[in-house]
């Protein structure tokens, strides 16, 4: 369940808010000597200000490839080259776009909840199998299932909190 929660947090980091965040570019890969590499492994990615990401490639020939990779990604960003530095300004988001992102956040939250519930189901099945194999009593099964449910509820509440915080972050102008 913790792994599902962490995967959810990683997915949310890729959803952009009004502010610049270097994690937005983690999903963008660049062709580097025949291998597809994340931008963070071929360049220094940092923030110039709250609305601009700066990328400084470690090799001069990579600037054009990095720019092309960012433009080709579905992030809607338009990088600008300034010598050996690439600036990626964050365009302001419209209210409609913000609502679309909140829907996406809720969808990601539901997917994470489904993953956690699948883990719960697998754990409950394992407990039932132990009872069936006479390795545990039915009282043990009930106790384990109650504990599994408490853990599940805690993780789902955590997801709800993260979704609410991300929605608030996205809707902030």
Automatic annotation (TrEMBL):
GO biological process: cytoplasmic translational termination
Family membership: Belongs to the RRF family.
This protein's UniProt keywords: Cytoplasm, Protein biosynthesis
GO molecular function: ribosomal large subunit binding
Cellular localisation: Cytoplasm
Record-linked CDD domains: RRF (cd00520)
Role summary: Responsible for the release of ribosomes from messenger RNA at the termination of protein biosynthesis. May increase the efficiency of translation by recycling ribosomes from one round of translation to another.
Protein name: Ribosome-recycling factor
GO cellular component, one term: cytosol
InterPro entries: Ribosome_recyc_fac (IPR002661), Ribosome_recyc_fac_dom (IPR023584), RRF_sf (IPR036191)
Any Pfam family the entry gives: RRF
Domain Ribosome recycling factor: 8-171
Primary localization class, coarse: cytoplasm
The keyword Metal-binding is annotated on this UniProt entry: no
Transmembrane segments annotated in the record for this chain: none
């Amino acid at each position: 369940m913790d792994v599902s929660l962490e995967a959810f947090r990683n997915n949310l980091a890729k959803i952009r808010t009004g502010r610049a965040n270097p994690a937005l570019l983690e999903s963008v890969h660049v062709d580097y000597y025949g291998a597809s590499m994340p931008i963070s492994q071929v360049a220094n990615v940092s923030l110039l200000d709250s609305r601009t990401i700066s990328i400084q490639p470690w090799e001069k020939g990579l600037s054009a490839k990095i720019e092309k990779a960012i433009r080709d990604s579905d992030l809607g960003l338009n990088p600008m080259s300034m010598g050996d530095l690439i600036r990626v300004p964050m365009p302001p988001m419209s209210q409609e776009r913000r609502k679309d992102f909140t829907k996406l956040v809720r969808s990601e939250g539901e997917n994470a909840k489904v993953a956690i519930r699948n883990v719960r189901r697998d754990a409950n099945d394992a407990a039932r199998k132990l009872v069936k194999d006479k390795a545990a009593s039915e009282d043990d099964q009930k106790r384990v299932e109650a504990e599994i449910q408490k853990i599940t509820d805690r993780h789902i509440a955590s997801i709800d909190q993260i979704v609410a915080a991300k929605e608030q972050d996205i809707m902030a102008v």
